[in-house]
Structure prediction request, 445 residues.
Amino acid sequence: MSEKADSQRHVLAIAFPILLSNITTPLIGIVDTAAIGQLDAPYLIGGVAIGGVLFSLVYWAFGFLRMGTTGLTAQAEGADDRKEVAATLIRALILAGVIGVALIMLQGPLGTACFALIEGSDRVERAAQSYYAVRIWGAPAALANYAIIGWFVGRGDARTVLVLTLLLNTINVVLDGLFVLVFDLEVAGVAYGTLVAETVAAVAGLVLALRAIRAFRAKPSWARIFEPDRFMKTMTINADIMVRTLALVFAFSWFAMKSAEAGDMTLAINAVLINFFHLAAYLLDGFAFAAQALVGQAIGAASWRQFRNAVTVSSFWALVIGAGLSLSYWFVGGYFIDILTVNEAVRAQARGYLIWVMLAPLTGVACFQLDGIFIGATRTADMRNMMILSLVIYLIAWWWLTPLYGNHGLWASLILFFVVRAITLGSRYPALERACFAKSQRGVI
Prediction:
């Protein structure tokens, strides 16, 4: 088999199981919206949307538990350092447990701070508070899932990622229907479904991870796990990713908050349409995840040729999927909207914004892929700095465009955010190659 064909095989072997698992992840939001949408109450759709945004703000701030774990695990895997592979997971799980318990203990002031940022109607806020009060109890399980999934991705074990994600999302979908449509628990029912699903998935993932570590026959010592230099590197990488992720979450939270300020109807429209973006993001993440694993492994193995193949092959397939999604949104987006809500006013007005969701996959491909490459290389300072710069430009665009074009201006600002992320992070790519590979290691493929 040629080297190029072997690279294709490795990328697709990781990407497509993750792509399949990721298809079910945005289905949670879609099913949440669709279940609540059958009640024909736009404020309930808005409540679920705001509740979801709040947990994006709370949980995504700790997304380093997945991303940092992926990069560090992949590099240890590439270097064939089994003890460090195992130690990386244990460090991440310790952090997940400490942070998760702290979130539960601080749920009162945390909720007060989060809801102070929302300016939706009273009915929307009450619905979102009902969601928050239930789902916060799943914090340790949710964060443990981040660490476990990141570890399996870093090892290139996409099949286990698929199994765990399908387990979580299937349970969530079934319980949504049961709690909302049968037991009439409304927004709280959506939160209960997620809480149970995250807990079951975390237990299953922990069992599978411990089984894999026993198979290594290279159990790390506690001294290895808490070795100062390694632990400090983990904390530094995680701190960079946390700042980067907070900036990203703020951008989407800002979008949701400004949607809420525009009224229940605009909030419901954008809550329906953002599901298109979530679907695209999770599908394209299959190839970004492949880049994370293979780039990290290439750096661990000190192979520039392997690195370049991972970058080019994963990016090619991401572009193909992105273009296909944009075309499908344009042609069948209206039918998708009708599935998500029975409210005729929301259906009619949402169609006027399809151009923006059509652009999202095309404009998001480059920044998603670059995120994957930089995570695999653990070049997190660049990710942090370029995200902050992109956020500033996004807010300036919002300030300028929204007064002129209303909700269209809000969507245009979000799309511009994706473009700027790609440009700024792409400008740092040559420095990444120079830092990871000596000139003597590089050549023409």
